[in-house]
UniProtKB/TrEMBL annotation:
A Pfam family assignment: tRNA_bind
Presence of keyword Acyltransferase: no
Name of protein: tRNA-binding domain-containing protein
Gene3D superfamilies linked: 3.30.56.10, Nucleic acid-binding proteins (2.40.50.140)
GO MF annotation terms: tRNA binding
Keywords on record: RNA-binding, tRNA-binding
Provenance organism: marine metagenome
Domain TRNA-binding: 39-148
Amino acid sequence: MKLTLSWLREHLDTDADIKVIESTLTNIGLEVESIEDRTEELKPFTVAKVINISKHPDADRLKICDVETIKGNFQVVCGAPNAKTGMLGVFAFENTYIPGTKIKLKKTKIRGVESCGMLVSEKEMGLSDEHEGIIEIDQKYKVGDSFSAIYGLDDPIIEINITPNRPDCLSVRGIARDLAASGIGSLKKQEIRKIKGTFNSPIKWQRKFNKDKDEEKLCPGVSGRLFKNVKNVE
């Protein structure tokens, strides 16, 4: 079973970091198979803006990009066809480890033109095999913003091996409940969000008990969702 740390915190009020949560899960009998946390690896990558582009004097397919970063302006030689003036991209500074290629970036000369840093592609970030173009960031963000936060990659993914005797932990709330019982936080009150449907439900819901005062305690809430006209095709 996989869940993100932020998802767990929707149900568990805790200040515990990922290492404390991992050890607590182990102590209460839930085997943590892995934790994928790319926060530190992706920390150096930030949003940058291409402020000017000129042709490379010795290569038709290469461009010389003037790039505005949080640390100042840098010149980058880039071959991406989608590189254009005004776009926001993801910048890697000199000496940054590039996860997709497993190399440390160095200042270099490409066809005689100095290149300081890199505008990276999804492949270079280890996100996909896409390498024809560089990552383009929405204009609502600004220079210096964290790439990992924009892409939601600053949220650790926890994988837990749930054994057959622990069906109570086959939900995020079930795991949060056990962690709360262990003392590292408190279980948040569960809220049922009302979502307006597009057709009337053929099922009538009732929640009635003999003692009105016990209603909330006996059954905090009931929810259901009916989907119609779903086509399962490839």
